[in-house]
Amino acid sequence: MLAYIRGLPLSVRQYLLITANYWCFTLTDGALRMLVVLHFYQLGYDALAIASLFLFYEFFGVITNLMGGWLGARVGLNRTMNIGLGLQVAALSMLLVPSEWLIVPWVMAAQALSGVAKDLNKMSAKSAIKTLVPDRQNSRLYQWVAWLTGSKNALKGAGFFLGGLLLSVVGFTLTITLMAVGLSLIWLLSIVLLKEELGKTSVKPKFSDLFSTSWAVNLLSMARLCLFASRDVWFVVALPVYLASQLGWAQVDVGSFLAAWIIVYGLVQSQAPKITGANGTGPDGRTALLWGIALMMSMVLIAVAMQWSIFVSQWLLIFGLIVFGSIFAINSSLHSYLIVNYAKKEGASLDIGFYYMANAVGRLFGTLLSGWLYQSSGLQACLYMAVVFLGLTVVLSIFLPRGEYSTIKSVP
User: Fold this and answer.
1) How many helices (H) and strands (E) does the chain have?
2) Which of 134, 199, 247, 392 gives the lowest tally of CB atoms within 10 Å of its CB?
3) So what's the pLDDT on residue 202?
4) First-to-last C-alpha distance (Å) of the chain
């Protein structure tokens, strides 16, 4: 097996290493998210307080994506990826203090560090693919992006399950310890094996280059912001709290269900090229528009159906989640491919970092609204707000480029 891997082209070996790195990081990130939500709900925190724990996680993700793309272009994506792994180990270690120290400000600080780590790791992985795939091989680019994104989310779902299970079996502290030790080993291997100078530009970008001048990147970034706000406004805090408090689900049941949902979501993402058709030019703005409309309609149906009785709503919610998750997975994979395609070859991390900055803003809005709307008006209000965000996604998608896109095109 090792001999076979050594015989692969360098670009493929680096892609496999980056993917494995991303997998391990994501497993701990998903587990940590579920641990924090369920552990602090168990301690008596309300939905808004739990949402506030993730405020800095999302806020610093905004800053990290903006600055991380610039940093990756200057020092290399290998370094930014390894910095992300190291910061995640530090964030996990911060939660190993005595239980009486686990107050909201301390946990928010640990989540801030984890948010920086996550977005450095993600930006580095997505940007590296752009540098490894030859020009004009859009079908191959789409497949690589879809597999990286889909497999990552499947592992995040496994992390949700792992977090809920280990919290019930061995407790909060021991779970955090195991994750910190395991990720430390991965970090050391990544430092040794990841190629140096990956993604580093020949010309040092200026600070003003942080903001994209590409109209396609800017439009797609706004669409991504609305897309992820539409998911997190009901999925991040409102849904797990609703399942536990209103439907009486146990912690392990909540963790298992959300884990299964994200695993299926990730698997569908990885198969997006087969579902949408990975032709020679790859999908375009029209493809994103059509799938955006399908996603908005699925959310409308869920919101309307959830006005029925609690007994019926439980099964409608489960079925609706499966449908929504599958269509959302296609949309997410399409967007992930389009940004890598739209990004400049030289200094791809700048455009991709800007795009994931918008993604982080959407997650921030969604997370805050998820806690506030649920506490003030219930899950139904969160669902209708998701419809509003998806409507904005559809409108923005109308103006995305159609046909094959060239990064040489200038701003109109």
Assistant:
1) 16, 0
2) 134
3) 56
4) 51
Spacing of C-alpha 15 from chain mean position: 19
Which of these, 94, 78, 48, 369, lies nearest to 228 by C-alpha position? 369
pLDDT given at position 214: 76
Place of tokens 């946990």: 107
Tell me, what's the pLDDT at 392? 97
Rounded CA-CA distance 291/276 in Å is: 9
CB 270 within 8 A of CB 146: yes
Quick one: DSSP state of residue 56?
Answer: H
pTM: 0.76
DSSP structure class, residue 201: -
Residue 113's alpha-carbon distances to 55, 259, 315, 358, 408, in angstroms, are 12, 24, 37, 19, 37
Number of other residues whose CB lies within 10 A of the CB of residue 35: 23
Give the pLDDT confidence score for residue 409 in this predicted structure: 43
Record the tokens describing residue 390, joined without a space: 């998806």
Which residue positions in the chain have pLDDT lower than 50? 407-412
Residues contacting 254, CB < 8 A, separation 6+: 38, 164, 240, 243, 244
Q: What share of the chain is helix, strand, coil (3-state, %, to 5)?
A: 80, 0, 20
Which token pair is 355? 């795009």
> What is the residue whose two structure tokens read 């990290």?
64
Helix axes 251-270, 138-169, angle to 10 degrees: 170
Residues belonging to the chain: 412
Which candidate, 286, 236, 297, places its Cα nearest to that of 262? 236
Q: How many CB atoms lie within 10 A of CB 189?
A: 14
Question: What's the confidence (pLDDT) of residue 351?
Answer: 81
Q: Which among 56, 49, 54, 37 has a CA at the least distance from the CA of 375?
A: 49
| DSSP letters spanning 335-370 | HHHHHHHHS-STTHHHHHHHHHHHHHHHHHHHHHHH
